[in-house]
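User: Hi! I'm working on a homework problem where we have to compare a predicted structure to a textbook description. Could you give me the structure for the chain below?
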Amino acid sequence: MVYAVVEILTQPIMIVHGSGWLIFADSFIKFPPSISQPLVSLYCASFGLCVSLLASHFVFRFVAICSPNDIRKLEGWNLLKMYIFPVIFSVVWFLMGVIPSKPIDVKSEIPVNETYGENTFELGYVGMLYYHPSNSGETIIRWADFMACFTCCIIMQTCITVMIVCGWKTYQKMGRLGSSMSIKTKDLNNQLFRALIIQTLVPILTMFTPVGLLLILPMFSIGVGTLANAPSLNAGIYPALDATIVTFMIRDFRETVICRRRGPKVSFSAATSEALYSVSAENHASGNLS
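Assistant: Happy to help. Predicted structure tokens:
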């Protein structure tokens, strides 16, 4: 929600050129720069919050499946514990946009007028320029921009690692529970895990990887033109796509949506009580963290 609101307010546009990139607002708030630049930084921070919340979602699922007794520790106001690191990461991302990525004259020379008809010297923007020639022809390396880039990449890599580790641990736990499950219960858990895999791959391919490439490619003076705006589109449609994945990967949900006759209900024996609680806790997680 925060990401959507900030995106509507700023209508950000990104351009990658030479050894640098920048994002500027193309809405009614693009002037004056003292307002638009912090809001563009907030837009970047909201993206960091979005990807961090995805990792928190996987942590919640890990706790629900692998340690269901501990799920009670995250009930009520204690659920706010899951948001501590996402908030910290988003604040760090915001500071990277406000301080090392703030507008300066040398960054304003990145040509935006040719493509978007804007004068960057009059805009508030967030940008990084990794190196540029000096007046004497020497190459000047901007270490502060490198530091900001690596900080953002480390945050994304941390989130990816958390998602992979939690997903793998969840898979192992579900495998160990398989021997005590009925055939129908095991099939339900397999559906849940397949949905989990796709829910992991989609944000990695549509959000983490494109943004990481846009941060790194200018280091090698590789431009991508207007394709630099693809991550904004992907981040905007991902929440709906995430819900669609669950809807069509879980058979009962899918058959309800396409109005097919549902089969017999899945029954759980006393021996599968842990699996029942795990599935219920995961559904509760999706409702709270999505």
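For your comparison, note the following. Residues 55 and 163 are 5 Å apart (CA to CA). The domain at 2-289 is CATH 1.20.1070 (Rhopdopsin 7-helix transmembrane proteins). Good luck with the assignment!
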